[in-house]
Amino acid sequence: MAQLTPEQRQHRLRFDYRVATQMRTPVMSVTAYRNVDDLVARRNPVVSDDEGHEATQYLVDYYMKTLVGEGRYSNKTSVKFDLLANGNYPYTPPACFVISEPIPWTPHFTENRPICTDDDLWIDAKGRMLLGHWLVHVAKLLNFDEIPRTENYGGYTPDAARYWREHFNRQPLTPNFPYPPLPAWASSKSLVVFESLEEESLFEPKPIEETGVSRAEASDFAPAEAPDADFQAGPGSLFEPRW
Known about the structure:
Blueprint: H1 6-21, E1 28-33, H2 36-41, E2 57-62, E3 66-69, E4 72-74, E5 77-82, E6 95-98, H3 119-124, H4 131-142, H5 158-168, H6 208-211, H7 215-219
Antiparallel strand pairs: 1-2, 2-5, 3-4, 5-6
């Protein structure tokens, strides 16, 4: 498996920070920290792009309905994202843990264990998937906005999987949920933030057709307008979600 140099990883972490902090919406708050102690104490957050390379721990509060039992719901879930936990970021995925009560009642969540995030999605991207994609991915798991599952799929909580199939007909809890989009500039084919890594093509944009996502699906994540006039959103970027 490939590996970034320390300088390249700092570049990548800074880019992830810029993208993730520009994805804040009323349904998702994002706060970055340098270490887990600061996150637990809610102190000394990273607050500037210049220090974005120091952000390795993220606290994300999701303000959305999720199941916590049969017929019972919670409207807020707090998740910790540890970018370096699996040893080779960005080729290995962040580790994700629910740090609020009650624990969501879904096949992907249980107490005292990492969220089951379908890590193959991240690994198959070979370093090109962004933290911002993963924030949305976890939101989809909270909403039971599932990738196709086998009939007997149960994950951590088979009873929750059965309940979802029987009571929601395999549909999201909240259809057409407004998932936060990536910034338009992060989806631009003209963006050259990884110019120094060009020879390895670690972050080369990839046509939508190669990701298995239709253009109609990818367009769901396109914001109405780019926050930066210097960058225009271009179709076919790898940075558009692939699930």
